[in-house]
Amino acid sequence: MTVTTLDDLVTEGVAGRYVLVRSDLNVPLDGDRITDDGRVRAALPTIKRLADAGARVVVTAHLGRPKGAPEDKYSLRPVAARLGELLGTSVPLAGDVVGREARDVTANLSDGQVAMLENVRFDPRETSKDADERAELARELAGLVGPEAAFVSDGFGVVHRKQASVYDVARELPAFAGGLVLAELDVLRTLTGDPARPYVVVLGGSKVSDKLAVIEALLPKVDRLVVGGGMCFTFLAAQGHEVGSSLLEADMVDVCKRLLAEAGDKLLLPVDVVVADRFAADAATRTVPATGIEDGWMGLDIGPESVRLFADAAGSAATVFWNGPMGVFEMEPFAGGTRGVAQAIADGDAFSVVGGGDSAAAVRVLGLPEDGFSHISTGGGASLEYLEGKDLPGVAVLDEGASA
Ligand SMILES: Nc1ncnc2c1ncn2[C@@H]1O[C@H](COP(=O)(O)OP(=O)(O)O)[C@@H](O)[C@H]1O
Ligand SMILES: O=C(OP(=O)(O)O)[C@H](O)COP(=O)(O)O
């Protein structure tokens, strides 16, 4: 990789110059309260370094998955406020992405100041499959900061997305890899070479279709693949079991059947699950065999027997990569699986990497020892795609150099 980096940019000199930074500030929220600010903290060094060097820093980021239009619950307001607190200065947030407010906020920046644009996914062009639409938004983002500006790609958690503010904008401005992206890649590289065996990958979470695609590529590389969280029910359905109203990707059942056949003993699924009669912390709950989920019940955590099984597999590994909570850990009745498996990883001697916004948040929110993990990555999907051996569009584009 021959990318130019934040160091190169700062050496070039940024005083008085506009720098557009793509960060991943996709934090978990409870209403407008940030329940874990890890991603904001992780984004801070790059932003601060540029501001300290006198740049006019414009941060663009997403929050959640809005459907290409503004939605108050996905506003970056709480994030801009938190970033301001951490920087010790106010961070103005434009109320739009590339509109009049974005132009005003940008134009009013002084040297060393930081501002943010509203959730870039409020603009449908951000996630468009049409390259021309994305390029148009990228040009408008670049237009905000002007022809002398630079772009710093620092949103590691989103570099696997070919999106306007991640990929296309790097073709409009001189583009540099941020410190967070470089640091994350450095650690993950150690897992792609010749990881110490046994190498165990633990997967969970709710982004089921994204991650099912990764399993196929990971299977030949790992000794054990442990699947819990919302991921497991499509596999249980593929084995012919009823899953009630648990998370299910019906159109992926056939893929799971094939994966089960390919994986044999390598793939470990839960043997029991905690089911609830509704998605709520005060729901009625039961622990049932994974093969016996009844109609009207939904699996929201793995059961204690599965925790023992998974903890044994993860605890005896020499290398562990974990992405995705084992259950809906945000609600205490469904936090036991994530806590148990995470504790086993933390207690083990393996080189251990946990990746993903919610998985990293779970470590902190559940009070697990952060120093029990060798690395806590800000990216789940991004890490998985890297481990799978895929090109990350947001990184590959930095190699191309700016074509503007
Ligand atoms: N059985 C389940 N049913 C529904 N949601 C689940 C289940 N298990 C875990 N989750 C949810 O998965 C979410 C995290 O998934 P994901 O975004 O894939 O992880 P990460 O951010 O770590 O990559 C959490 O909010 C958690 O509540
Ligand atoms: O939370 C994120 O990824 P992760 O859940 O895989 O860690 C990133 O912010 C990317 O979000 P996306 O999966 O909606 O593109």
UniProtKB/TrEMBL annotation:
Keyword annotations from UniProtKB, A to Z: ATP-binding, Cytoplasm, Glycolysis, Kinase, Nucleotide-binding, Transferase
Binding sites annotated in the UniProt record for (2R)-3-phosphoglycerate: 39, 121, 161
Top-rank taxon, per record: Bacteria
CDD domains the record matches: Phosphoglycerate_kinase
InterPro entries: Phosphoglycerate_kinase (IPR001576), Phosphoglycerate_kinase_N (IPR015824), Phosphoglycerate_kinase_sf (IPR036043)
GO biological process terms on file: gluconeogenesis; glycolytic process
UniProt name for this protein: Phosphoglycerate kinase
UniProt-annotated binding residues for ATP: 211, 299, 330, 356-359
Binding site for substrate: 24-26, 39, 62-65, 121, 161
Pathway: Carbohydrate degradation; glycolysis; pyruvate from D-glyceraldehyde 3-phosphate: step 2/5
PANTHER family associated with the record: PHOSPHOGLYCERATE KINASE, PHOSPHOGLYCERATE KINASE 1, CHLOROPLASTIC-RELATED
Upper lineage: Bacteria, Bacillati, Actinomycetota, Actinomycetes, Pseudonocardiales
Subunit structure: Monomer.
Subcellular location: Cytoplasm
Main location group: cytoplasm
Keyword Ion transport listed: no
EC numbers, comma separated: 2.7.2.3
Gene3D superfamilies documented for this protein: Phosphoglycerate kinase, N-terminal domain
One cellular-component annotation, GO: cytosol
GO-annotated molecular function: ADP binding; ATP binding; phosphoglycerate kinase activity
Reaction catalysed by this enzyme: (2R)-3-phosphoglycerate + ATP = (2R)-3-phospho-glyceroyl phosphate + ADP
Keyword Transport belongs to the record: no
Organism: Prauserella rugosa
UniProt record similarity statement: Belongs to the phosphoglycerate kinase family.
